[in-house]
Specification:
The structure holds two protein chains of two kinds. Chain A contains five helices and four strands. By secondary structure, chain A is of the alpha+beta class. Chain A has one domain: Sufe protein. Chain: A (Alpha-Beta Complex), CATH 3.90.1010.10. Chain B is 39% helix and 16% strand. By secondary structure, chain B is an alpha/beta fold. The chains are: A alpha+beta, B alpha/beta.
């Protein structure tokens, strides 16, 4: 097996792709946004509930796309649940920087934890948007926007 | 300019098309530590050494403007560009050089027809017929024109196998039909459309025909007189030439009656603030300094195709198509999209539970270059009920070993996603 292939398509990622977590419509929800990558056709809707302390009490998603985008959305929901909006924003920026190769999660301080498995996309410019689509969508939902495209 | 075609040098007695591979320097490179298997020829085919040389030779030896200077460099550049026009004319058998207009590519050529023929001849309530399998470049200009003029876009259906419904097509004409736009070879499916028949039916109704030939000229002999179409558009970089260059063929009697495309230098005979006298064909449609090295390169590519011969190209590519279809059909969960009886060397497919973009990345890491996505044919994808496909498109220089490399990588993808 090519090293790069197995580094990118790790078991965790494949598992989240096959059985995505929090994959359902959240009704009612405080915020929702639709994320679309027109180039790939990847499309996800993200639903968020926030309590009076700005803590995300529930977050879910539905939609279709490649394994990287789906696993990224799935893992994102598991990570941000229970976090404060400000923490999520910080994580969004770290994730974004990692995907673009501006932050090396192995040598620089970060809170990415298991999200580090998406670091491999930094060498695949065409796939960076797949990994970041759900994060952009969550960011938009938290900002009160209803639609976001990554083109 | 010299011709260093290995293929030509060795083609003294027996014809061995496999030797032509050596003419393409890029095919020797590696990607991600693997030998490159370049199967994305429908997106852009590679250039042989002779084309690269002709292209750079212009810049080294006679870089200057055309049709203007009295100095030697300009004369040489003009001659080289006009020779290219003549070679391309010969390749598609146009009647004369006035019928060959250099454009920046097929898209530009189609837009030329839209802006000149379309805007002057198509009005409110008029109808344009195109097919479901058109590339966006033969949809969007007509959608734009229809919106501007309140004209109607009618679409010929295709079968599940990706073939044109000729019967439906023949019944779509009315006295308001003003143009038929049809793709010669589908970039997504490889379907070869019977463009001569399509043209004959349109002409029975006195409707002119524009053929999008971007995917045809590298694979099969194209004779615009035999097709009898009124316009034929194609691109250099899909036929072993440079990017940013293409041509529009138009029948002289049609072109003569059309208004100019863009205004500027080279397309005029005389200019005053009160009046402009437009230049003769084909220059009337070539405003501004053209892509000279591109035109020269495209001419050289046409020459290269002729030297190898369409018969050899056809035989080799159909052989590759058969082999690829057979090998890919044996991959777990793989379904081929597009099974027309007449196909160029394109195999589009989807795989159960694996998204085309994941396939594309895995193949790339294994050294295999393919295209994934909607291939700029979103309406066709919708018709066929798929969001995206993976497309392997073969050229004359490809080898069965590259298809084996593709198949092995797909088996890996299946293994990973199991």
């Amino acid at each position: 097996m090519n090293d790069k292939t197995s580094q990118l398509y790790q078991q965790v990622l494949l598992d989240h792709n096959k059985t995505p977590r929090n994959y359902r419509v959240l009704d009612p929800s405080d915020h929702e946004a639709l994320g679309h990558n027109p180039l790939c056709g990847d499309k996800y809707k993200i639903f968020v509930n926030i309590d009076e302390n700005d803590t995300v009490t529930d977050v879910t998603f539905v939609g279709e796309g490649c394994a990287i985008s789906k696993a990224s959305a799935s893992m994102m929901t598991t990570v941000v649940k229970g976090k404060q909006v400000s923490e999520i924003e910080a994580l969004f920026h770290q994730f974004h920087d990692m995907a673009q190769g501006k932050l090396d999660p192995e040598t620089e301080p970060n809170d990415l934890g298991r999200l580090k498995i998406f670091a491999g996309v930094r060498n695949l410019p065409a796939r960076v948007k797949c990994a970041t689509l759900s994060w952009h969508t969550l960011h938009a939902a938290l900002e009160g926007q209803e639609k976001v495209t990554t083109e | 300019m010299t011709d260093t075609s290995t293929y030509l040098k060795q083609r003294t007695n027996s014809v061995d098309i496999d030797l032509c591979r050596d003419d393409f320097p890029v095919l020797r490179r590696e990607v991600h530590g693997k030998p490159l298997a370049y199967l994305d020829n429908a997106a852009s085919s590679q250039m042989p050494e002779s084309v690269i040389e002709a292209y750079t030779e212009y810049h080294r030896r006679c870089h200057s403007n055309v049709h203007r200077g009295v100095h030697l460099l300009s004369q040489e550049a003009t001659e080289a560009m006009e020779n290219a026009r003549e070679t391309i004319r010969g390749l598609i058998n146009a009647r004369n050089n006035k019928e060959i207009i250099f454009t920046s590519g097929t898209t530009d050529a189609i837009n030329l027809v839209m802006q000149t023929y379309g805007r002057s001849r198509i009005g409110e309530g008029d109808e344009i017929i195109i097919s479901t399998m058109e590339h966006h470049s033969n949809i969007v200009p007509w959608r734009m024109l229809c919106d501007e003029k309140k004209a109607v876009l009618k679409v010929v259906p295709v079968s599940d196998d990706g073939e044109l419904d000729l019967e439906a097509y023949a019944s779509m004409f009315s006295d308001r039909t003003k143009l038929v736009g049809i793709v010669h070879v589908s970039n997504t499916l490889g379907t070869i459309n019977p463009v001569a028949e399509v043209t004959r039916i349109a002409h029975d109704h006195d409707v002119p025909v524009l053929v999008d030939g971007a995917q045809a000229v590298s694979h099969m002999p194209v004779d615009v007189q035999q097709i009898d179409c009124d316009f034929y558009a194609t691109s250099g970089h899909k036929m072993y030439g440079p990017t940013g260059i293409g041509i529009l063929y138009g029948k002289e009697e049609m072109l003569k009656t059309l208004p100019p495309y863009r205004g500027g230098g080279d397309m005029i005979l005389s200019v005053s603030f009160e009046e402009v006298l437009f230049n003769d064909l084909p220059y009337k449609f070539e405003a501004g300094t053209p892509n000279i090295s591109g035109a020269i390169g495209m001419g050289k590519a046409a020459e290269y195709i002729r030297s190898v011969g369409y018969e050899n190209i056809h035989q080799k590519e159909q052989d590759l198509l058969r082999y690829a279809t057979e090998q890919l059909s044996a991959v777990d969960g793989l379904r081929i999209i597009g099974r027309a009886a007449e196909k160029s060397s394109v195999v589009s497919f989807v795989m159960e539970d694996i998204h085309p973009h994941d396939i594309g990345t895995i193949l790339d890491l294994e050294g295999v270059a393919v295209r994934t996505g909607h291939h700029c044919t979103q309406p066709l994808m919708e018709r066929l009920g798929v969001v995206a496909t993976t497309r392997a498109s073969m050229a004359m220089y490809n080898r069965k070993e590259e298809i084996d490399q593709l198949t092995a990588a797909l088996h890996k993808a299946v293994e990973i996603f199991r």
